[in-house]
Amino acid sequence: xxxxxxxxxxxxxxxxxxxxxxxxxxxxxxxxxxxxxxxxxxxxxxxxxxxxxxxxxxxxxxxxxxxxxxxxxxxxxxxxxxxxxxxxxxxxxxxxxxxxxxxxxxxxxxxxxxxxxxxxxxxxxxxxxxxxxxxxxxxxxxxxxxxxxxxxxxxxxxxxxxxxxxxxxxxxxxxxxxxxxxxxxxxxxxxxxxxxxxxxxxxxxxxxxxxxxxxxxxxxxxxxxxxxxxxxxxxxxxxxxxxxxxxxxxxxxxxxxxxxxxxxxxxxxxxxxxxxxxxxxxxxxxxx
Length: 288
Hints:
α7 packs parallel to α8 (176-182). It is built from 11 helices and 12 strands. The chain is an alpha/beta fold. The chain is elongated and about 60 Å long. The strands form 3 sheets. A 6-stranded parallel β-sheet has the order 9-8-7-11-10-12, with helices on both faces. The protein folds into 2 domains: 3-104, CATH 3.30.1330.30; 110-287, SPOUT methyltransferase, trefoil knot domain (Alpha/beta knot, 3-Layer(aba) Sandwich). β2, α4 (66-75) and β3 form a beta-alpha-beta unit.
């Protein structure tokens, strides 16, 4: 696409006001929409049919985002050109990346996740599709930091988890910082929100999954699990500051500690989740 062929209409004031309002949680809840900032996240959102409602490009960054403009056109998504000042009103970052999208909510019901699913890879033509059970899930219990929640989603995506469940007392998944920290992974795998922790664990167990809860004081280390990691597993990750309370640990089949060999007192929540998910994913792939 040449410079001369780029045509970006200016958005009506009502459209701008509606996008700005999505900075507020109440507005996101009422409209079922949220903001997506940054090239990678907007690209992944545009690849999901029907998710993106509109894309706003900063005029000065138009040439840097020609590929995203092409994606928006191909998807039939409305797009606009805005000033740096107007784009800044849609984001809480100090230096916005030059593109912001308005997307529709993507969370799914718990029951839609813990059933049968189609394989991720296409089978050969004429071959009957096999269906497999969900084998790896991460449950965030009272995770309050949006950056941690978004990073857990990104890690779950990277290690091939089937879903992420955020308990009803966790941070909002559509918080701009959560969306930004996921770097587009929020559009790659099912996200379940607003579920009571006990209900989520019961549903995972009913689906044939073992429940592992992380606890730094547990007598069992991750390295002690060996073949147990090959089985379908739901990992329960607790709050950043106080972890999982006793009554929540009691809901799990086993409590597991991530071993620390150096002098660090503990691991960041998202880092611990990454280690556990990697261990499970590696064991499951090896067994298959």
